Amino acid sequence: MQHDTGPRASRRGLLAAAGGLAAAVGFTARAAVPEAAAPKPRSAAEDFWGVHQAGIVTPAQQHTYFAAFDLTTGKRDDLVALLQTWTAAAARMTAGQPVAPAAPDAYAAASDAPAPGGQASGAPASGGQAADGYAPASDTQSPILDSSETLGQDPARLTVTFGFGAGLFEKAGKDRYGLAALRPEALVDLPRFNGDQLVPARTGGDLSVQACADDPLVAFHAVRQLARLAYGAAEMRWAQIGFMSRPADGGTPRNLMGFKDGTQTPQQIDKVVWVGDDGPAWMRGGSYMVVRRIRMALEHWDRTNVGFQEQTMGREKLSGAPLGLKDEFAPLGLDRTDKDENPIIAENAHVRLANAVTNGGAEVLRRGYSYNDGVNFTAERWPPWRQGMEYDAGLLFVCYQRDPRTGFIRIFENMAKFDMLNQFVTHTGGGLFACPGGARAGEFIGQRLFVAT
Amino acid sequence: MVSRTRCMPIRAAIVAVVSLAAALPAGRAGADEPRGFLETVHKHITLTTTVPDNGDQNPYALVVAPVSAGKIQAGDVLVDNFNDLSNLQGLGTTIVDFNPSSRQTTLFAKLPRQLPPCPGGVGLSTAMTMLKSGWVIVGSTPSNDGTTRTKGNGCLLVLDANGQLVDSWAGADINGPWGNMAVTDNGSTATLFVSMAGFDVPGPQVRDPATGYPVTIAKATVLRIELAIPPGKPPAIKSRTVVADGFGQRADRDVFLIGPTGLALGADNTLYVSDALGNRIVAIADAMTRTGSAGTGREVTQGGLLQRPLALIMLPNGHLLACNARNGQVVELDPATGKQLYAQWIDTNQAQSPPGNGDLFGIALKPDGKGFYYVEDDMNTVMEAR
User: At the topology level of CATH, where does B4-24+36-385 sit?
Assistant: First the structure.
């Protein structure tokens, strides 16, 4: 498949990037994203190795495939081997290579770094490997090394971001891997929020994989390979596809409610997103990911008038400007009132309750996608309580922060109770995952957690 | 929890003004003396969420505590929930307590879903009061599946001031205790009026072929309950008298049950009843003393600004305030003349059509008489109007 999208003009690309980094905060996006963070061409490869995992502050790609896994193995060595295998595979796929070289021997030899626990496998360096990675067509006896559907594809800026759920440390009272004592304080059990309708089959997981790419096949391909490589050690618990369509002018993308989503983003990424010295060594440079599958009552929403939608959101629908203003990137002006001294942006409007000012300065970096899973039978939770076949569509909300207790939980406790938008959205699944710092070449993701014990 | 000022959405506010103007007689605008209560009310403030930890939803009854007792401070606002976590009606079991001074909301009572002395179990309705002796009495109109198909007869539950269940009252004359209570309380004695809207109500699937709606059963009553309250002991029933009957009651898939809901006592012992299906307010004369039923009483006003009236309160000026079910308005009317003065949109939520449709239910006068509390079922919140 050929991509027809070449490198974009840097300015357009920059605005697109800002849009992708949706955030619940009060600074303009224009200043928030440095030029260096402008997205690469669709066909380019992102770096896998580094201080941070890719896919967090990486300018958002257009597609995501999120998957949560439950660990089925009870052996620590299996877990370590899985993370080594996943790291190696993700590094290769990020570079646009098939998941493994053609021959298993070549795969093993690619690693010259000793792995903990005496494991022989390790992480091959990214790039520079010319092997096509596919078993010869004539060799029908070879194990499948790559499912081949992305044969000939560009890397499409694939990123694969791994996270650890609470179940990695302790599950049903069992310390399966000798890690219980290392569970970070910040990896709390998310509280039950007002209005939550979380379905167990779409909630939690011991491990998370967020694959993002500018091509949906590339994102799915990545998860598909990892799931196969996990056979015997972990199995898929739930998965969710997401997409983000950018307007032609490169401006802020719109969510399914028709509003621009992502005008604001935190200014101080280091402070908001990355775990610092306050966290355990293996989490430094990492971040906590909250994911929520949020169903939108689109039929109900579509029957409300635009003026009401704008009051609910606190923004103008077309321009994205704060209610009553013209510039999308203007400060919200939460203190503005009408002649009767009622606030212009209602007290329970979405943008007000999400704003850092309302939440004691709490901020998160949002990186959400729309989702659309067709239709199914549902009963709306609010008057007029419509029942019938409705879109199972909405937002795959994803946010990153250095500590969920002072990030998402702090912000959403209040929003869950009072946000006018709650009448149109229902949280149906999700989880909290500790995404370790990035791996240097030769390491595997989360390696320092295992070295610590 | 913090209190926050609620902004009336602009377009809805205009609708309210138009509606208000339409209801004002020509030539009276600009008079110095307020003609009624609602024109002195300008602010609508969100006070608290009513959802406790168990996720119960759909706040119904609102009661302002007359005294401090147990966990309750005088002036606290007690709110019960009719729905459970899954938003199934008739399965709510909790009462929360909002303290206006601290702005804190705590769980006052959590009752068991199944309660053998209470036929059908517990689903807390709009019938609730707190007596000066500290006892809380609350109605149960329970269901097992969120519809009247599985409705039980219910009961009245007696709780102490710490939210502990101490007694329950059931019987042939108690079936679906539904609307807000009217109460006179002398300390050692008290009189409760409770509307009963559950007699022989089938599930919402049983339709009247003539209307297409679920069948209307004209068997709803208003029961007067005389209580003796010995010092330190729970209230005991001295007598029960049906003072009104023959009101329409009907199952509804969306709102569970439609029947007489609002009760308010006038100074002359007239009991005012909101007859929701009749879309009217009626008067029951000599309600405190009569020994038999007045039937459906005397019609005070019908239609006009009323849109299926629910809870009623008596205002300091002798007027009545009625919450509408089918829009977000309260209607002020003078029961002496039957004149409807005007209506105000207190819930302007355009997520419903008309705005606020289905959102209002319980209402309670503030202790200072200058405003009122009301629930918003759309957002599961308690609001203050002042």
Answer: Neuraminidase (2.120.10)
